[in-house]
Amino acid sequence: MVAAVCAGLGVPHEILVVQVAAGNLQSEARAARYAALAAWMERSGIAALATGHHADDQAETLLMRLNRASGVAGLAGVRARGQVPGTRYPLLRPLLDWRRTELLPLVVSAGLSAAEDPSNQADRFDRVRIRKALAEADWLDVPALAESAAHLAEADAALDWATAREWKEQVQRQPAGLIYRPQAPRAVALRVISRIVTELGGEAPRGAAIARVFDSLLARQPASIGELVARPLPDGWSFIAAPKRRSTAGE
């Protein structure tokens, strides 16, 4: 369908075939799409990617993440400008202020038929159930929810700024790892710890794991996260690689 529309408009078009990994179907499909698009951008010399995310998508994302007890970064939802995952290519979302009901008439007025993905009716997906619940709750203001997500994005940017300052002023390298002398509030300290883990070669940790480490160190107790060991010091916290286990004969 898209190929036919593009042919009529004289717009170059290419179909990208993806392989979706096992696991969360929608999450893995999203990752596969972005990876394929990034590769296409690279070979085609495309400078930026624009997507059709709109205000209803933003509201759904906010409610889904509220239901999962997400932090500020998660509740900020999708941003008007970001990066294609795993790349430095700009990712633009110019329609975040538009409702789905506002976009559909534009599609029709252009002489096009809006595509309907059958998975959008499959109740096994969290987003579909949230979407249906939103449609039935006429007392919920979707644009207001989307605007709240935008406010949370601003708060997330402020936390990033504070984290960068805390890192510069309170994190010090040592031969075996890093020492952190926390001065900022908990929300900032958690982000600093997350950065420490990745700086020392670990994978980006989950928020719950970071919180456990923070609480242990605050109680003057050692903790581990990934391949790192964190220990309280008289004037801060140290983070070093966990000692390797020695193998014994017969293992």
Provide a descriptive summary of the structure in words.
It is built from nine helices and eight strands. Among the domains are: 47-153, Rossmann fold, CATH 3.40.50.620; 175-241, no CATH class. The radius of gyration is 23 Å and the shape is elongated. It is 48% helix and 12% strand. A hairpin with a 2-residue loop joins strand 7 and strand 8. Helix 7 (142-170) packs across helix 8 and helix 8 (186-199) crosses helix 9 (207-218). It is an alpha+beta fold. A five-stranded antiparallel sheet has the order 4-5-8-7-6. Strands 1-3-2 form a three-stranded mixed sheet, with no helix packed on it.
Looking at this structure, what is the CATH superfamily of the domain at 47-153? HUPs
CATH domain topology of the domain at 47-153: Rossmann fold
Proportion in helices: 40-55%
Overall morphology: elongated
Global structural class: alpha+beta
Q: How many β-strand stretches?
A: 8
Average pLDDT reading: 90
Low-confidence stretches: none
Record the strand order, biggest sheet: 4-5-8-7-6
Radius of gyration: 23 Å
CATH architectural arrangement of the domain at 47-153: 3-Layer(aba) Sandwich
Classified by CATH, the class of the domain at 47-153 is Alpha Beta
Q: Largest beta sheet, briefly?
A: 5 strands, antiparallel
Offer a concise description of the structure.
The protein has 251 residues and is an alpha+beta fold. The chain is built from nine helices and eight strands.
